Amino acid sequence: MTNTQAIAHQLAEVLTRYSADYLEARLEESQSSYITYRGRELDSIGRVSAIGGNVRAMVKGAWGFVSFNNLNELPGRVELAVKQAQFAGSEESQLAPVEPVVDILSTEPDKNPVVIPLAEKKQLLDEYNDIIWRTPKLQTSMIGYGDSYKKVIFLNSLGSYIEQDRADVILRLTAVATADHEVQQAVLSLGSRGDFSLIQGLHQPVEQMARHAVELLSAPQVKGGEYTVVLDPVLAGVFAHEAFGHLSESDFVYENDRLREIMTLGRKFGGSQLNIVDNATMPGLRGSYKYDDEGVPATKTYLIREGKLVGRLHSRETAAKMKEKPTGNARAINYHYPPIVRMTNTYIEPRSASFEELIGDIKEGIYVKNWYGGTTSMEMFTFSAGEAHMIRHGKLAEPLRAVVLTGNVFTTLMNIDGIGNDLKMNQGGGCGKGEQVPLPVANGSPHIRIRHCLVGGR
Amino acid sequence: MEQILAQAKRVAEEAEVFIVSSEETPVQFEANRLKHIQSKQSSCVALRIIRDGKTGYATTTELGDSQNLVNAAVETAQFGTIAKFELPSLTRYPEIEVFDPEVESVSIEEMVKLGQELIATVRGHTPDIVCEAGVSKEIISVHIINSRGGQANYRQSVFGLGIEGHLIRDTDMLFVGESESSCHPLTETKAVTEVVLQQLELAKNRASVSSKPLPVIFTPRGVASALILPLMAAFNGKIVLEGASPIGNRLGQPVFDEKLWLWDDSTIAYRPESRPCDDEGIPSQRTPLIEQGRVTNFLYDLQTAALAHTRSTGNGTRSGGGLPTPSPSAFIIKPGDTTFDEMVNDIKEGLVIEQLMGAEQGNILGGDFSGNVLLGYKVENGKIIGRVKNTIVSGNIYQLLKQIIAIGSETKWVGGFIQTPPLYYPNLSVAAK
Fold it and tell me: A165 near A194, Cβ under 8 Å?
């Protein structure tokens, strides 16, 4: 038994002693390493180790939360969390009932990327950087690599005790090209649930990315306005996440009567082809897990089925208040924070259209690929493409500079009139909500076509 | 910490230990009601060594685990960059007040009362708005020692309050909000609620805008959400050194409108971004970046400054526990002489941009930006007539900051890290539904 496990067992007994409506604790041990390059040279390389934990208490509908990375004096911290909750609480505590779980998930030490020698990681990044620097007209490059492995022990006053681990790998490469005070950049972003081999062998995409940055210097900027756009699976995945995913997170909805009216199950958001799913039970993706950070088993949840709102993502509290079933979507980025409702692996289900069918009858439109980022205000959202091409008379035409697209959740989903047959999951992104960023998630989609999409430009 | 330094000195030519600890107490309101009271303790120790001329680096949360920390730093030093810099020896620091003991003694009850006051004022104006509010206090302490005798210790207090309101009518959503922070306790909520009430007033009516170039006023929040990120990158000494800053080789040249003055300042008393020294123990200073439209300086940490054959500007910052890297402390744009009302009066047809969404997703280095006007208003014949929606604007900050019509006289802190007046620009590309 490790020291942290021993502390957890003592804590389990402490949790039963206090008179809160609900109490839980999480203890984490993590290791990580990172390597960054700026330009030709390595910029930073480091190792991080951390131990920490938190206690969360619910009394009369309010939460107390204490986080720490000093594991001494834990009973005092439990007492403080209970006191805080007592001070804030004034209503009835509501948490959807779940069965207590005792589960010690067998760890997969072979999937721990942190123990791979730094020399091996550096070797791979050197190869990628060499490829970028072989590209003519390139000004500079940036590479950010990071990996982590963490073990989390969860326990609560219902008697749950869960040990889980999580490994994560991220890699982001940026190529920067310049000419006459003009600067253009292209980005390649990847990730995996700890599997280092998934970021190996990318020599060809890295070369394409570097060439693309140079191409952008001579590419025109699109004229702003409404276009028919075709999104590649990567960008369409970001679209699913931003355009609808965040609105289905119930913590935003559950205490807002107006929003609950808008988000009534059965409301039509899109055409009958459209299915959007959040699924933490898919094996081996960055958004996958067996139990969420409240000890609730992960589920596959249809958010939109045949264009209609059929489900949403819940914590135990939002599920109880909305009288729905918990979905196991309460996640915390680390022990500094309490869990909040988050997405996991979110995707649009594939249909039958081929790429050629999607662009075939477009007279003038835009094909957008890859992503810089995306953000939402629930009603309106933006997402930006790393690569774009005009579509003219059903064929891909000249390349364009990066474009930002914007939409409105109540109209843009309705305007999806073509869904491809080529679902791909992308793991290169992290999701931000409040202060908790970046949370590992995966997004995916086949190619999709959207009519009347508003595009920014000159 | 002396023990870590001593252990590190046995295996390295130079060593530096950096410890930061913090105690934070956030009080949060959800859906108009008190929902969370939290207490967050954290501490982290970072060890930087120079071994065989190369930099090694490791961090941990476990202060007792010094041998593992030293071993990890030694491992990374095999691959580290060649250290070109010299750690500072014992230095006198400017007296910059960033700690007010009163912050520590603000009670939870008082913090709850401030939150309730924020919500009551906003709901008094618009009863059906749903508010989230937060009040927080934090005490941070920083200790640095190094093998050249350098030593720095300081404590900082930060108090913050803010509110966000969501107003939903059918499928129309309006988001308003404002926040404020200081090293002193904040006892008044009026400065924050006045801004929110004004946003609610101006957004009452809806207006539509046509797709064409239009004159635009960026409010201080608009400046922060649309224009600042590219500037922060452009003045970063590291990006300059790589040749990726569009202004990197234009030191002394008139790149911007001659009305524009910008500086970085970590010496203002009782501001949360201020501090006596940076995270490498280099004294804080005020660094002019743009004077009368001319580029005057870039921001440096020790290593980047050594590579660029210049001196650190005291901007070495460790974000997320990483190695120090140049980062702005607080960007300040000098106010001009035109009032906001005079700017609005001057416009026949145009926009006021209060919040742009997605502007940070474009080609930041090149200065291109494009974003959805999350909160913005239409101006017609010198008057704000209502809120615009489903509107996207695009431009390039280098073109924009070259031809400003006017700089506002009313300046304001936004998000803690920038103080700016409104900026008035003649023609920005607008596309709308």
Answer: no
Considering the domain architecture, whether residues B196 and B212 belong to the same structural domain is answered as no
Report the 10 Å Cβ neighbour count for A103.
14
The answer to whether B58 contacts chain A (CB < 8 Å) is: yes
Helix (H, G, I), strand (E, B), or coil: what is residue A85?
helix
Residues of each domain in chain A carrying CATH 3.30.2290.10 = 3-217
- pLDDT score for A434: 86
Provide the whole-model pTM. Answer: 0.94
Domain coverage including residue B352? 205-433
- Residue-level pLDDT at A108: 66
SS3 A273: coil
Q: Which residues of A touch B246 (CB under 8 A)?
A: 178, 181-183
Task: Nearest chain B residue to A90 by CA: give it.
Answer: B34
Residues B60 and B82 in one domain: yes
How confident is the model over A280-305, as pLDDT tens digits? 999 999 999 999 999 999 999 999 99
Domain A3-217 is of which CATH architecture?
A: 2-Layer Sandwich (3.30)
Q: pLDDT value at position A179?
A: 87
Can you read off the two tokens belonging to residue B344?
């609005």
- Chain A residue with CA closest to B65: the answer is A49
* C-alpha to C-alpha distance for B113 and A89, rounded to whole angstroms: 15
Beta bridge partners of B379: B350, B384
Choose among A41, A87, A122: nearest Cβ to B108: A87
Last residue of a domain, one of B151, B170, B200: B200
Q: Does B20 touch chain A (CB under 8 A)?
A: no
- Which residues of B fall within a CB distance of 8 Å from A401? 363, 368
Q: How near does any CA of chain A get to the CA of B175, in Å?
A: 8
Length of chain A in terms of residues written: 458
What CATH number is given to the structural domain containing B186?
3.30.2290.10
- Number of A:B CB contacts under 8 A? 253
Q: Does B134 touch chain A (CB under 8 A)?
A: no
Give the number of domains in chain B.
2
Question: Hey, what amino acid is at B87?
Answer: L
Residues in chain B within 8 Å Cβ distance of A375: 357-358, 361
Classify the complex by whether its ipTM is higher than 0.90, answering yes or no.
yes
> Do B172 and B40 share a structural domain?
yes
B293 and B155 within one domain: no
B264 and B367 belong to one structural domain: yes
Contact A380 B35 (CB under 8 A): no
Give the C-alpha separation, A374 to A372, whole Å. 7
Contact residues on chain A for B79, CB-CB shorter than 8 A: 35, 42, 45, 118-119, 122
Q: Are residue B105 and residue B227 in the same domain, yes or no?
A: no
Of B165, B200, B235, which residue constitutes the final position of a domain?
B200
Reply yes or no on whether the pLDDT at B406 is more than 90: yes
Q: Are residues B223 and B371 in the same domain?
A: yes
Compute the distance between CA of residue A146 and CA of residue A127 in angstroms, rounded to an integer. Answer: 17
Q: Where are the alpha helices (DSSP H) in B78-206?
A: 108-125, 190-202
Rounded Cα–Cα distance for residues A54 and B325 (Å): 31
